[in-house]
Amino acid sequence: MSRAVYTEIECKSALNRVTGMPFHWSINPYRGCVHACHYCYARSTHSFFGLNAGSDFETRIFVKKNLPVVLRRERAKPTLGGELVSIGTATDPYQPGEGRYRLTRGVIEAMRDFRNPLSIVTKSTLVLRDGDLLAELAHYADVTVQFTVTTLDPVVWKAVEPGTPPPWQRFAVMRRLVDSGVRCGLFVAPILPGITDSVEMLESVINGAKEHGASHVWASPLRLSPMVKEHYFGFVDEHYPQLAARYDKAYPGASAPKAYQEGIERRVDSILARYGFAETRQRVLRKTDPDPSQRTYRNPVQQLTLTL
């Protein structure tokens, strides 16, 4: 993977208003992400800068250097009113550049000072660095760290999410945060047809969540918006050529066939119930609105047919 180039920019606003989600505001300290997850729906946002959704998204990272200052100014206004803020809804707020720029930590410090409810979405173990702030804020407001884990298979993980920390390390950090009093959840998202959707693979991830103290699990099937689809199909052609024709047929649009989505929902619900998440689970999300810019099986009997 090529070395990332970081470009510092100034943002005019820090908070983005969100509708139709469990949170009302989002913050993204960075544009682009060296985690290089091939399915990432935010890849298409790089087109706003005249850059591509492939290597440019993974190596041309924009850093909103004044974001914590702008956030404090915006949060001081009465319009926010203590509503839930989510960090990292587009790109990971704890990608490696955060170790240098510390923007996410600055955001958490502001949320702590305002005692504002906070949710974080990440695949990174770097979130443990800010465990002190998160535990402190948790005394005054709702705080949740949502870890995304799509697979525990080391071969699949390295192919699909080549720039991320190992998923078992993410679970280890989840446990340490939970033990410090920080609520944590699991995002099994997206579920990749023919790659991570077997009973075996889903169960291993959900079992990991149970063993490491997750309070809830949320799952969602793969969605492929324009530009993201072209990139992801290139990834499939290279790593899973036996699935290429099935993907071509199943994704004429952005979403997988309804029958497939319903089958995944039943599969996930069944596993969640076995691991005691039945009462807190969230249904598999079937997105019909536009995106805001989302190994071969060991046992073929467990496959869901990916057809129209």
Essential attributes:
3-stranded mixed β-sheet, 11 helices, pyruvate-formate lyase- activating enzyme, 308 residues, disordered C terminus, alpha/beta, 7-stranded mixed β-sheet
Quickly describe the structure.
With 308 residues, this protein is an alpha/beta fold.
Instruction: Tell me about the largest β-sheet.
Output: 7 strands, mixed
Measured between the Cα atoms of the first and last residue, the distance is 35 Å
| Poorly predicted segments | 279-308
Instruction: Spell out the helices and strands N to C.
Output: EEEEHEHEHHEHEHHEHEHHH
Q: Please tell me how large the radius of gyration is.
A: 19 Å
What is the CATH architecture term? Alpha-Beta Horseshoe
Number of domains: 1
Description:
By secondary structure, the chain is α/β, with parallel strands linked by helices. Residues 279-308 have low confidence and may be disordered. Strands 2-3-6-7-8-9-10 form a seven-stranded mixed sheet. The protein has a three-stranded mixed sheet with strand order 1-5-4. The protein has a single domain (5-302), classed as Alpha-Beta Horseshoe (pyruvate-formate lyase- activating enzyme). The chain has helices spanning 55-59, 67-75, 98-101, 103-114, 131-137, 154-160, 167-179, 199-211, 228-239, 244-250, 258-274; strands spanning 5-9, 16-17, 25-27, 30-31, 60-64, 85-87, 118-122, 143-148, 183-191, 217-221. Helix content is 34%, strand content 15%. The protein is built from eleven helices and ten strands.
